[in-house]
């Protein structure tokens, strides 16, 4: 995004109030088998974000997220033992 003098890039009440919104109705159940999702956003400065994901990409990402959420948390401690401690500190 280009830097504009006096612009901080923050979302303000006036920005939201004065913005133009386009809305659409999305049915709860798709009319047909869906094959993907498209996100296409253009900001007020004309900068565009366009990204497409296939049904297979979304399913694979969902499976990875579920597997990570269900995986056990493994905590490892790899610090080597200190050799400069006295026998009193180590309990020996």
Overall mean confidence score, pLDDT:
78
What structural category arises from helix and sheet content?
alpha+beta
**Radius of gyration over C-alpha positions, nearest whole angstrom:** 26 Å
Instruction: Give the N-terminus to C-terminus distance in angstroms.
Output: 63 Å
Q: What is the general shape? A: elongated
- Assembly level: single chain
Q: Please provide the ordered H/E string of secondary-structure elements.
A: HEEHH
The fraction of residues in strands falls at: 15-25%
Query: What is the count of DSSP helices, taking H or I runs of 4+ residues?
Result: 3
What low-confidence regions span 5 or more consecutive residues with pLDDT below 50? 1-5
Q: How are strands sequenced across the largest beta sheet? A: 1-2
- Main beta-sheet strand count, sense and barrel state: 2 strands, antiparallel
Topology:
Layout: H1 13-18, E1 36-42, E2 48-54, H2 55-70, H3 87-90
Antiparallel strand pairs: 1-2
List keywords for this structure.
2 strands; disordered N terminus; elongated; 3 helices
């Amino acid at each position: 995004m280009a830097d504009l003098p006096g612009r901080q890039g923050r979302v303000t009440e006036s920005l939201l109030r004065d913005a133009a919104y386009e809305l659409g109705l999305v049915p709860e159940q798709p009319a047909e088998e869906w094959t993907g999702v498209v996100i296409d956003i253009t900001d007020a400065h004309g900068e565009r974000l366009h990204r497409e994901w296939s049904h297979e990409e979304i399913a694979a990402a969902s499976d990875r997220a579920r597997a990570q959420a269900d995986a056990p948390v493994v905590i490892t401690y790899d610090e080597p033992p200190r050799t400069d401690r006295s026998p009193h500190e180590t309990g020996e």
